[in-house]
Amino acid sequence: xxxxxxxxxxxxxxxxxxxxxxxxxxxxxxxxxxxxxxxxxxxxxxxxxxxxxxxxxxxxxxxxxxxxxxxxxxxxxxxxxxxxxxxxxxxxxxxxxxxxxxxxxxxxxxxxxxxxxxxxxxxxxxxxxxxxxxxxxxxxxxxxxxxxxxxxxxxxxxxxxxxxxxxxxxxxxxxxxxxxxxxxxxxxxxxxxx
Length: 194
Fold this sequence. Notes:
Elements (H helix, E strand, L loop, with lengths): L1 H27 L2 H8 L3 H7 L3 H20 L12 H25 L9 H24 L9 H18 L3 H19 L4
């Protein structure tokens, strides 16, 4: 019974910390407010987490790892039905469903942490992926139509659009629908590269 209560308290701390980081970002978040909102003392909070940084990392590390792996997967190939588009839409929508708050904290509220450049890191990983597709397209054409440096603004535009959908659409079904429409728009124009 005690273990269950400890896990419930830990989850309450994480939930209130997530709310605090969403509202104030890491730099302006307060351990005192997190503890008060969780109904515990600051000392008791430190029994679960060594500090604000450890608490922050416990919230954003899983989504950072998962999104980086997803957008960096250069080996994504369509199966015999050619439904790579559906796989990508499903994967990115699933990340939002599971990690909406932590993802917003990561891209908008991580100043002052080791994650403060996460959005730029995602852009870089995506740019590498896009550059590979551009190179493959150039190879099919037998000439250079798209330079490697074109991958950067393409990736920034794509990722920022994705982040903007997450910011504006809190309802999971609404968010999924907007992600589908957004990706459909991109895919129609980028189909030749895939």
